[in-house]
Amino acid sequence: MNLLRLTKYLLMINFKDFGFLFWTVFYPIALIAIFMATTSNIGHESLSDIEVAVDKNYEYGMILDQIDFIKSEEMTEDAAKNALANEEIVGFVTSDGNLIVENSGFDSSILESVINQIHQTSLLGISPESFNYDANFIKSTDMDIAPQVVMYYSTLAMISFYTIFTSMELITSMRPNLSLMGSRFSASPFKKSSYIIASSIASLFLGLLTCGLVIGFLMIFYQDDLFSNFPATFLIILAGNIAGLGLGFIIGLIPNININVKSVVPVVFIVGLAFLSGLMGPGLRTVLNQKLPIINELNPLAHVTDVIYRVNLMDSFEGYWTAVFYLIGITLVSCIITLVALRRKQYDSL
Amino acid sequence: MIVFKIILLHFWKFKWFIIPLALTFFFIAAMFSSFSDTDSFATQELNVTVVDQSQSEASNALIDYLAKTHNVETTDEFNRKELEEAVFLAEIHGAIILDQNFEENLATGEPAVEVIGDQRAAANTQLETELSKFLMFANAQINDSGSLDISKLDSALTDTIEVDINSDETSGNEADYNNVAAYSNFAAYWLMLFLMLSVGNLMSEYNQSEIQKRITVSPLSSTSNAIQVFTSQFIVSFLAVLIMFSGILVLYHGHLENVPLTRIFLAMILITVFTLAMQFAINALTTNRFMVNGLANLITLGMAFLSGIFIPLELFGDTAQKIAEFLPLYHYTELYRVPNTSWSEVIPSIIILLLYTVAFMIIGIIFNNQRKSKQS
């Protein structure tokens, strides 16, 4: 009963702190709203026709006209060079079948491939009737990619770690050398374990409430279904919240630094981890996963992000339990370190 | 100069978050830099995963052909979910599955290859164009002579046309300029986050009523106090700008031709002064560290996203693009967005940044005076 009452009072204290409410309620919603406003068009850009100029003496100019994604017109070399410089066309095919482009890129590469094909067809030395232009050698499976979804999941993963702030505050407030409350605690017979458990329950509740608000916001305002497997999503977010608690305990233990300086550490730490896991777009995450995969293999936030999209979008549980146990492992190690660091700090052993 | 010294000493407390933050930034910037040393055309390299279920001579020839220009990873294990996930996350441009009956299908004109990719993307068109070419040529050879002559096919496919770049200056310099511009974009985010967190937390402590009451009863005049506070903040900010700017000189040494370094430096100074003014206003409003940290994160992340720092503005919707034009970070990027613009073209952006700074200074002074009158 005492534990419940203590939890209730701690929750009430937090709810009365406008700054805390801003950080846990308004900030995540505002951030998600900004992401949704800016990223709604990402992934919806489609390939437009590739504009190409052709010298009138190029003998295969007619073939280019028959290709779906190419729009060709005759032009002199000088006019084409001007058009290239003004980015009106992607390339110019000279009379001898070579290509002039403004710069390297996807469109130039596609054009190069097409002109190469025309050039190489004659080199094969095969009669035209042997070419089967009607055959479809490729079966295409379309993946409607939505890179912005990773950003939303990464934001949710980031928010699930925000319990780090409350647990850091909790431990700092219990350190006699860091806070007034801590010195009172140390000199009183108040049970430290009750306070830690009650605070952890309260911050876990607040963390889950924040995540719930973000999920609700995304479910209401995002057009597609982002959370098709809610129980699995809830479990990984719960594990993320618990891991956040553990990491906060460790940061809270840092000695001789006041809480204002210390509070910067989790902000930078979490934003950094979130960036590595894809918060600012998939580019950094892709480069990292290709060049230094170990970083995101260790990054707990990347585990949460990966698992959320796998269970919800890919219907896959690959790596799910590894992520859950990894997060719980972080919490256990953090709690053990915290208990060792805090022991023998009771008033009768000081 | 006691306030000046104390504030600088307080800044020193942040060294253990400044150093890793700066190192991480430089590390990421270095990883992102891809230098172009030549002015020649280069085919766009695609990241492709190939599942070869056929293990035939023809499938090997196809893989060898693709590997000449692209980054090809070959695997024998077919895990569709894994491939779809890699495509979905844009980790690869496409996945190619070569059917068990690859050679037979190639001969009969049946689908021999499955491509998993985003069909709207240019990369997918490039991949399918190159695959089609190989498959059509191989099929034509079989139709013509009854068998596949891989050496003849390979020699035809390696005989390519000449591709020239229109203007000699663009290719290499453009890539270098894009690298520096991307670095400068991220540097602005870094500077804003660093200043808002460090100055914000430091000043929220300094503005506590107990300390302010002591300052009020001390012989220190309020003008001297303000000058010392701003000077110390500016010195730290200027050092941060120098660190970020020297990053350009070190990381991109030898690739700075055509890069508007003076304008980038000015842009960094202006965004720094703007951030200090904005933080001054925030600190006049609140000393709550949750608010200070929350606003620092929200403003820097939000403004960076809305201004096209992380994602190109062209990908935004019309409304988001219009909102971006009102934001200071957008005008920061405008200062160096086009390499060869004249100073007269960027003056409006400089004026807008200065006006934002003045506006936040005025807001800060008003709220600061209100706070002081409440305290007294």
TrEMBL record, chain A:
TM helices/strands, residue ranges: 20-38, 150-174, 195-222, 234-257, 264-284, 320-342
Main location: membrane
Domain ABC-2 type transporter transmembrane: 19-339
InterPro entries for the chain: ABC-2_transporter, ABC2_TM
Membrane topology reported for the UniProt record: Multi-pass membrane protein
Subcellular location: Membrane
Keywords: Membrane, Transmembrane, Transmembrane helix
One example GO MF annotation: ABC-type transporter activity
Classification via Pfam families: ABC2_membrane_3
Signal peptide coordinates: none
GO-annotated cellular components: membrane
Protein name per UniProt: ABC-2 family transporter protein
Lineage: Bacteria, Bacillati, Bacillota, Bacilli, Bacillales
Automatic annotation (TrEMBL), chain B:
Main location: membrane
Location(s), subcellular: Cell membrane
Cellular-component GO terms for this entry: ATP-binding cassette (ABC) transporter complex
Transmembrane segments: 186-204, 225-252, 264-282, 294-313, 346-367
The keyword Membrane is assigned to this record: yes
Domain ABC-2 type transporter transmembrane: 15-366
Protein name (record): ABC-2 family transporter protein
Organism this protein belongs to: Jeotgalicoccus meleagridis
